[in-house]
User: Fold this.
Amino acid sequence: MKRIKKQCDFSKLVATFFYVGFISRKAPGTVGSLFSLIICIILYWFGTCRLLLPLTIIVFFLGIICSHIVLIQQKEKVDLDPGYIIIDEVCGIFLGSLILYLIRELSIISIICNFVLFRIFDILKPFPIRKIESICKKSKYTFAFGIMIDDILASIIATSIQLILLNLLH
Assistant:
């Protein structure tokens, strides 16, 4: 019984990104994205952006597992995406910064621009983001994946638009 409680406590810690998901009731995703932005800026500042690859992969897979456990523990309805689960926003911000880093376009300005574009796409959820999210959220077995995948897609679209704009400006 203690082992299950510890597993649930750890899952909530991860899914809420060290309880940051509970800071704001109105905009937990934005707060989580902002904390992720700060982490990316710190990594850039100290020249340790190569850590973004393992961080993004770890956050993605832990996000799926821990979100699933939290949803089961909290007995949330399968059709709801609790706002306090913000590990998906963390993963989205990390992924955008990782892509920019890999193509050598990472700077503090590009990290901030990516944050803004990511939040726009994460909130609006244009096609195909909302469609894929709704498909994944039809089953309790793929629901946690749906929580993560919409932010991955929002990040990819936001970063792609940012790169198109950068190429047009060059």
